[in-house]
Structure formats: structure tokens, C-alpha cells
Amino acid sequence: MTPTAHLVDGSLYVCRAWFAQGPDVFDADGEPAHAVHGFARFLLDLLERVRPTHWAVAFDESLTTCFRNAIYADYKANRPPAPPDLLRQFDGCRRIAQALGATVLRDTQYEADDLIGSALETLRREGLRSVIVSADKDFGQLIGLHDEQWDPSRNQRWDSAGVKTRLGVRPDQVADYLALTGDATDNIPGVPGIGAKTAAILLHHFGSLDALLARADEVAFLRTRGAAAASQKLREHADLARLSRQLTGIALDAPVPAGEAAYRRRAFDTGLDDLLDRLNFGALTRARVRALAASQNPA
Q1: What is the rounded distance in angstroms from the CA atom of residue 208 to the CA atom of residue 198?
Q2: What gap in Å lies between CA 83 and CA 85, rounded to an integer?
Q3: Which of 199, 165, 201, 207 is nearest to 183 (CA)?
Q4: pLDDT tens profile 238-275
């Protein structure tokens, strides 16, 4: 059986945990720790359900220093700064992930998406398949023949065919698709007036964004509603589409550990008990940790 690596979009699930409940638990310093508790439960769920032989958790460190900010100054400029409490709890979440035996990925120039993409590419060369643990549609572009994406919180899992079902395009077209539609969450402009359905139709006919822009005049002759208007928009906003494409592509050359051994699940850190003490984890979580520690057998 082909070894499988689970690559976790840590920042997504930290934020989910932070928003899911109010600050009802506190660490030894009296600071809120609810996001750390929620994220720890998420990771323990993952370990109990999957028992991965290889896994990594990626975190965003490049909120304003990402290479994409140099390409487009307004990239993610619509997002308010993260509250200090959330930033502080991110540190606790990273420490929990590392103490639970995960390889932690972080960088000031590359986002979690890029770190996961680069780790997946590294592991693919080593003969491993990957499961990307995230709900983010951007990851569709990484899904190869043997890979999957999984959002355990919603119990949804999909492969490359699932990407086509969900978005209407193949994995190799996802970055082009996002360049056309734009992404309000990340403040990526896209082509004004080109929505998801139109983008999928255009890529079905022309294959890629480059081919579409080179043959934009032909779009007007498609037998689809709004074809003439779409043709005009593509001609007017070709530069914006190309700019957006630089932002939507996930980098595969971010600095990540080389070799599959770097991603093997490690034994729990000897300092895990002290960390649980400082974060005021209760008896139930400690019992789960003890059970996993007793049963784990890292590869």
C-alpha cells in the first residue's frame, strides 16, 4: 500500500476554533486559550481517526510579508489585522502541533497553501500520496491522480474527479479558474463580471487562461448566454487576469523539509504534559493523549 501523508491547513482550523466559542478557558497566565483547546481537540480527533504515518501542520506567518504582497500591494488588504489574542493563541497551537509529533511548517514569505503544496510535491517525488486536510477550494489545483482533499469537520472528502464536480474544472485549471472569478476573501480582483459558471464554461472550451486570453475574440461566438459581453471583458481586463493568475497559483518551491523521513509521525514530546498544564487542559483531553501515547507506533 502506498504510504499516505496528511497535510493539515493549520491556520484554517485555528481560526475555526477561535470563532467557534468565546474565551471560556484560560491558560496559567489568565489569558484566553479557547482556540488552542479547540485546535488540540481537532488534532486529537485526526490522530484517533487516521493514525497517520506521516503528517505536517502548516501555519500562516506571512500575513503582510508574503511574496504575493510584492506582486499586488492590495493582496488581502481587505482583511482587518488579526486580534492580538488570536495571534498569541496561534503560538500555542503551533506548540501543541509540534508536541503531538507533527512536522510544523511556517515561513514569513510563503503562505500555508504554498508550504502544503511544496511538501506535497516533495512527498510525491518520494512515492507518497497526500491527503490535504482543509476546506479551502484553492487546494484543488494540487490534487493529483492519487491525492485527496478532506475536511473532517464537515466529513467531506474528494479526489480529482471531485474537484471537477465541485468547481466545474479540472485540478490543473483551478488556478486559472480563480484568476477569472477572483477571490473576495483574499482581495484578488479577477475579471469583473466573470462568475464561476462562466469561468468553468470558458476553460472547458479553451483549456487554459493563456489560450483563452489569446483567443478572446472567439468567445463572442460561443453558444452561451453573455458570450459577447464576456469576450469584451476579457479583452479589456486581460492584464488584470494575468495579475490575478500570479496570485492564485500555489507555489511548489517554498522552503520545506526534504525527504519523507522529515514528515514521519514522531512520538509525543516529553514536554507535552507541562504544556498541557500551562494551558489548563482537563482530564478528558489528558486521557485521550495518554491513550494515543500508549498506542502510537511512529514509522
Answers
A1: 14
A2: 5
A3: 199
A4: 999 999 999 999 999 999 999 999 999 999 999 999 99
- For residue 71, is pLDDT > 80? yes
**Lookup result for grid cell 509521525:** 265
Single out the residue of 186, 187, 146, 143 nearest to residue 165, CA to CA. 143
The predicted-structure confidence for 206-245, as pLDDT tens digits, reads as follows 999 999 999 999 999 999 899 999 999 999 999 999 999 9
Beta bridge partners of 131: 6, 148
Q: 3-state DSSP call for residue 151?
A: strand
Contacts of residue 120, Cβ cutoff 8 Å, sequence gap at least 6: 5, 7, 130, 132, 142, 147
Catalogue the E-assigned strands of 152-255. Answer: 156-158
4-168+251-295 topology per CATH: Rossmann fold (3.40.50)
Question: For residues 250 and 113, is the Cβ–Cβ distance under 8 A?
Answer: yes
Q: Which pTM does this prediction carry? A: 0.95
Q: What is 171-248's CATH number, 1.10.10.10, 1.10.150.20, 3.90.1150.10, 2.60.120.260?
A: 1.10.150.20
Query: Rounded distance, CA 187 to CA 202, Å?
Result: 22
* E-strand stretches of the chain: 4-9, 54-58, 103-105, 129-133, 148-151, 156-158
